[in-house]
Specification:
The complex is a heterodimer of chains A (299) and B (237). With 299 residues, chain A is an alpha/beta fold. Chain A is built from eleven helices and seven strands. Chain A has three domains: 104 residues, no CATH class; 33 residues, no CATH class; 110 residues, no CATH class. Chain A is elongated, with a radius of gyration of 32 Å. Chain B has 237 residues and is an alpha/beta fold. Chain B folds into two domains: 161 residues, Rossmann fold (3-Layer(aba) Sandwich), CATH 3.40.50.300; 64 residues, no CATH class. In chain B, 32% of the residues lie in helices and 29% in strands. In chain B, β4 and β5 form a beta hairpin. The longest helix of chain B has 16 residues. The chains are: A alpha/beta (299), B alpha/beta (237). At the A-B interface, α8 of A face α2 and α3 of B.
Chain lengths: 299, 237
């Protein structure tokens, strides 16, 4: 006995059904008599995991697929649950996706053989420059196929990612401002912390420690603090990144990684931190060793 | 037996400071000689110039005019680096407030001047243990200053001052931060140091410390007004 079919009310886009609102309704409430369709004759579909999770669907379930609410549609069988790609443009959309065969899509939507868009894969010759083949194919289609407008994939990618480039630049600007502000803040903190040690520095100078020795000690200490701080910061950043990714990947049902802590970023942070440590230690130390020892010990 | 050669010779030294647009002299043409093995206590009212004198003798400060020779070396015209080096090896300082490094142990504090003077590690560790034992702190070598009493901290400071075997030990109010009993212990330690041959110059308000010294120099308004030899060197025993 096949499992009882479940209704699915859908909005439709070319090639993909998008379901902005899902209202599972018991089949018996819509139809007076049970529907009997041979299982083998049913068309098959794939649903994305967000829809499967929201509607409690599993592979093998039978559902009703209709272009509009209230229409009869088809009973279809779910044969696959698809995972979404890591596409940032899809993350925040409250949409569900259903994949079905093209002829089935045409039949369900009543769109006949209308085609909204299609993709052509080109193969490059060994002598081709990068992107030469897609450009050539696009040009050929634009010349030959009236009513179509062809674009190389790279052009589409550039077009669709322009928003993200702006966001990326904005993030970089925030990053630079944060780094500059943090550097000034850290420098002030180092100056204050080193200044708290002026009595110790004065004592060292009074008992005969050279300026170079004292300066070296201060810079070494500042560098060690910076190194330990940067490693702790990297660990904290990694943990925070893991939590953010875990939370938002679960929330949006996407494999997209929302934050990244790469070796490059860690390296940059450590180098920046060490640089700041050395510079702030040097500035603070120079300021102290140039002061008379008696003044440092408050006499 | 200590030879009676002058370890310290200060000739007509003056130190003037600018104050409110005019020059104020803290030390005015002072001359002083200290023989090897002597213990001199410099006493006087506050502001008489005794701390300034000690800073000049220890190459912490430079005289405006005059000449200071310590252990055969003219320290009155040293540059900053040379004066620093001289403070490291030529004289030992004991301060009223100890000035120990809070993050270092007692032994490490004593080793500090030796490390700066590039004394090999094994030698300086042995010397530090020896000095701490001398001042009665052999069981406290691994304690940090906050784990020591005021008297113990001052003992560590004395051991540190002696680390590089200086020709002269300078002490600025060494009992100033200590209670009467601990102060008396400190005086006894200075006495033992002197009997063992250390030349000492102390600046003090402490009558008992001054009375324990062999020679008491009274200062007033930047000059020596009295110089009393209480016990000659040959009266050591």
């Amino acid at each position: 006995m096949p499992p009882a079919p479940r209704p699915l009310l859908a909005g439709l886009l070319a090639g993909v059904l998008l379901l902005p609102s899902l209202r599972p309704v018991p089949l018996r409430a819509q139809t007076q008599a049970p529907i009997r369709v041979p299982v083998a004759a049913r068309r098959t579909i794939a649903v994305d995991e967000r829809l499967a999770a929201a509607a409690g669907l599993a592979i093998g379930d039978t559902v009703r697929l209709a272009p509009t609410a209230g229409s009869l549609g088809d009973l279809v069988r779910i044969v696959a649950i698809t995972r979404r790609g890591a596409d940032p443009s899809e993350v925040a959309r409250n949409e569900f996706k259903v994949r079905l065969h093209l002829d089935h899509l045409q039949a369900v939507t009543g769109s006949g053989d209308r085609v909204g868009r299609f993709a052509v894969r080109s193969s490059a010759d060994a002598s081709d420059e990068p992107n030469a083949a897609p450009d050539r194919v696009a040009a050929a289609i634009n010349q030959a196929a009236f009513g179509f407008r062809a674009y190389p994939a790279s052009a589409v990618a550039v077009e669709t990612s322009s928003t993200f480039r702006v966001v990326n630049r904005f993030h970089r600007a925030i990053g630079v401002i944060t780094i500059v502000a943090s550097a000034i803040f850290l420098l002030c903190i180092t100056l204050l912390k080193v200044d708290e040690r002026r009595r110790d520095v004065g004592a060292l100078r009074l008992i005969g420690c050279s300026r170079a020795t004292v300066l070296r000690a201060i810079v070494l200490e500042a560098t060690l603090v910076a190194l330990i701080g940067s490693l702790l910061g990297a660990a904290l950043g990694w943990a925070a990144s893991a939590i953010v990714n875990w939370y938002y990947q679960g929330l949006y049902q996407t494999p997209l990684r929302f934050t990244l802590v790469t070796p490059g970023i860690v390296g940059f942070a450590v180098v920046l931190s060490l640089g700041l440590g050395v510079v702030s230690g040097l500035l603070a130390g120079r300021r102290l060793v140039r002061t008379a020892p008696l003044e440092l010990v408050g006499r | 037996m200590t030879s009676a050669a002058p370890v310290l010779s200060a000739q007509a030294i003056r130190r003037a400071y600018p104050l409110a647009g005019r020059s104020v002299e803290a030390v005015r043409g002072l001359s002083l000689e200290v023989m090897a093995g002597e213990w001199v206590a410099v006493v006087g009212t506050s502001g008489c110039g005794k701390s300034t004198l000690l800073n000049l003798l220890g190459a912490i400060d430079r005289p405006t005019t005059g000449r200071i020779v310590i252990a055969g070396r003219d320290v009155s015209a040293l540059g900053d680096a040379e004066a620093t080096r001289f403070r490291l090896t030529g004289v030992g300082f004991v301060f009223q407030r100890f000035y120990l490094m809070p993050t270092l142990t007692a032994a490490e504090n004593v080793e500090l001047p030796m490390a700066e003077a590039r004394v090999p590690r094994a030698q300086r560790e042995a010397r530090a243990r020896e000095l701490l034992a001398y001042v009665g702190l052999d069981g406290r070598a691994d304690h940090r200053p906050f784990q020591l009493s005021g008297g113990e901290q001052q003992r560590v400071a004395i051991a540190r001052a002696l680390a590089n075997r200086p020709a002269l030990l300078l002490a600025d109010e060494p009992t100033g931060e200590l209670d009467a009993r601990t102060g008396a212990e400190m005086i006894a330690l200075f006495d033992r140091l002197n009997r063992d041959g250390t030349t000492i110059v102390t600046v003090t308000h402490d009558e008992e410390l001054a009375q324990a010294a062999r020679r008491v120099v009274h200062m007033k308004d930047g000059v020596i007004v009295d110089d009393v030899l209480r016990r000659p060197l040959d009266a050591r025993a």
